[in-house]
Design brief:
The protein folds into 3 domains: about 350 residues, no CATH class; about 100 residues, no CATH class; about 70 residues. It is about 40% helix and about 20% strand. A hairpin with a 4-residue loop joins β13 and β14. It is elongated.
């Protein structure tokens, strides 16, 4: 089957960016189909079928029960707390809790499963037919914006449009859940590798063996890697808020496998049982998930270009090579020889238990409720909503500042407050000598030093043009690192951070910038491109330590541009 004859391997190598990859897929009339399987380790004290401790930090092979290493004669004893937590997860993910559940044996032989089988739920899972609504955003957008100097013209310059500068507009997506099953975890395998890169041997830590997991199986209804990483991000927020899982991808408490297929545009969604899909394993970060999916989509498209068949297999992703590599052929359900677990009878789920666990869903800090509040009440940009919800405690911090501000004559601009808080927290986290951890849920340390009342004072001075955004961050840094009792007003005077609003001084400074940056200022006057305005403002900030009024400086540069346009019209 030839999909597109004029595309070659050399042509394909040029399609490495997000936008170009989409163009290539459209040119070939194919699109990716992605379905996720997410394993979340439950936040409970003991394991699923034994009294062994559920501990991540203990020395290897010290948190074991006889059942965890499958000693003869040991039998599973179901942990009731695990069942309750799994029910809560199902309710939080809009699933239907099943009336009767039972467990199955999934047979396979590997060193991380001493019994030779895993106790899971294949035919009668604890929950079915759920969904997750989430905001899809470009994964790379949040990792760049706040590592650069603060963009002071974003909300001060009337001609600046954030949406026009983005190539990826965020949107709402719903991904459906087939089932949630309760199962035991395997042991942790560590490979010892010599200097030549050859594997010497494998070490097995059985501390994790038997820990309680839920496996969340999503339907293959995702169309690009950004949807996949955004879904996992939203899922993590939900599970953390309900205290179901710590969701630390790098520690392995949340593990993501992604199934990837290619289909023709316009075809019905492929049956996941018959599609030739590739499973990406061991994706231990959102970045690895995002980049690994792009790499695998490129590889499969390349195979189709060369008229090759896609092999159904499991693969891993190498971030160093930006490639996926084969692990093993992917097994089907028949290969696992599922059978009912004879030591565990069917379990009837009491309706009273479901009602008891549903009380926790009234939690106002659930991501969906916070998102609706931020969007409906404050009309916040969706990218800002993603960032606010992504930092624990930050959305509540923002809401407290805005609620206390509602009685003022001139309320704060919500977008400006949200954007600056996101930027400031990201920068405060990078301070190496901070005496405390930047944690917005810590009322004793962080919120005592940077209380809502102090932040309101800072925003009052910002919106009254008494301090600049750059110096507002400097005040926050000083309160966090140096002086617990310091007030924003005192630091402004002590550090000489008050904004200069004198028109003549600002005019001289801006004229000096125009003279020093002749090429840049000329390009700005000709094109009106905001990039050149940013360059001039950055230079002004460098020369005057952020003390000149940015509002008046922007007005000066804009007037200079308009005068240039007027002079051109007069000449013509």
């Amino acid at each position: 089957m030839t999909l597109c004859k004029h595309f070659t391997r050399a042509t394909l190598s040029r399609f490495n960016s997000t936008r170009n990859l989409v163009h290539l897929a459209n040119s070939l009339q194919v699109e990716p189909v992605i379905g996720l399987e997410v394993h979340a380790q439950l936040n409970i004290n003991t394991k699923l079928f034994s009294r062994g401790a559920n501990s991540h930090d203990a020395p290897p092979n010290t948190q074991l029960d006889l059942f965890d290493v499958s000693l003869p004669g040991t039998l599973p004893q179901l942990n009731s707390r695990a069942v309750k937590t799994a029910i809560l997860a199902g309710l939080g993910l809009n699933c239907e809790i099943q009336n009767v559940i039972h467990f199955d044996r999934k047979n396979y032989f590997y060193s991380d499963m001493p019994s030779g089988y895993q106790i899971t739920q294949y035919t009668s899972p604890i929950a079915k037919d759920g969904y997750v609504d989430f905001i899809v955003s470009d994964y790379n957008s949040s990792s760049i914006a706040h590592t650069q100097p603060y963009d002071v013209i974003k909300y001060l310059f009337p001609r600046s449009s954030n949406s026009s500068e983005r190539s990826f507009a965020p949107y709402i997506k719903r991904s459906h859940i087939s089932q949630i099953q309760l199962e035991q975890d395997s042991a942790k395998t560590l490979s010892q590798v010599c200097t030549g890169g050859y594997e010497l041997n494998s070490l097995v830590d059985y501390n994790r063996s038997g820990c309680a997991l839920i496996e969340i199986v999503f339907q293959p209804d995702l169309c690009n890697p950004h949807e996949a990483s955004s879904l996992v991000r939203e899922l993590s927020h939900i599970l953390r808020t309900l205290s179901i899982c710590s969701c630390e991808l790098q520690e392995g408490t949340l593990r993501v496998d992604a199934n990837v297929s290619i289909k023709r545009i316009g075809d019905q969604l492929m049956d996941p049982q018959s599609a030739k899909r590739v499973e990406l394993k061991n994706l231990n970060s959102l970045r690895a998930l995002n980049r690994g999916l792009y790499s695998e989509i490129r590889r499969q498209t390349d195979e189709l270009l060369l008229n090759k068949c896609i092999v159904q297999e499991s693969r891993s992703y190498s971030s160093k090579l930006d490639q996926t590599r084969p692990l093993r052929l992917k097994a089907d359900s028949t290969d696992y020889r599922y059978m009912p677990e004879p030591s565990l009878p069917p379990l009837a789920i009491d309706l009273g238990l479901i009602e008891e666990m549903s009380i926790a869903l009234d939690e106002p800090s659930l991501p969906k409720r916070v998102r609706e509040l931020l969007e409906d009440k404050y009309n916040l940009n969706r990218l800002l909503i993603v960032e606010l919800i992504g930092e624990p405690g930050l959305s509540r911090y923002f809401l407290q500042i805005m609620e206390n501000n509602e009685t003022r004559k001139k309320p704060y601009d919500p977008d400006t407050v949200a954007d600056f808080l996101i930027y400031a927290v990201a920068n405060l986290k990078s301070i190496q000598i901070s005496p405390i951890r930047v944690d917005l849920t810590d009322e004793d340390d962080f919120l005592k030093r940077l209380s809502v009342e102090k932040m309101q004072t800072i925003f009052d001075m910002l919106f009254n043009d008494e301090i600049s955004f750059i110096n507002a961050l400097e005040i926050m840094r000083n309160m966090l690192v140096n002086d617990v009792e310091a007030t924003p007003e005192r630091l402004v005077d002590e550090l000489n951070l008050r904004t200069i609003n004198d028109d003549e001084e600002i005019s001289r400074a801006c004229s000096n910038i125009l003279a020093k940056m002749k090429n840049i200022s000329k390009k700005y006057r000709k094109t009106g491109d905001i990039r050149y305005l940013r360059m001039m403002l950055d230079k002004m900030n460098e020369l005057h330590h952020g003390r000149l009024s940015f509002r008046k400086a922007i007005k000066f540069f804009e007037n200079a541009r308009q005068e240039y346009e007027l002079s051109k019209k007069i000449k013509t």
